[in-house]
Amino acid sequence: MKGKIAACCICALTCCCLYTHRRVLKACIKGGPMPKAPEWHVWVKPENRR
Question: Is the pTM of this model over 0.85?
């Protein structure tokens, strides 16, 4: 039972990550320009943030 719950949690977290980064993944796959990062991504250069 614990294994099923852990697998469901991992699957849910993976789906959330894929949804959150959908524009970045689309740009990587299609070779398009990377979207600007949110303002709170302090590790990204300021010119690449929204």
Answer: no
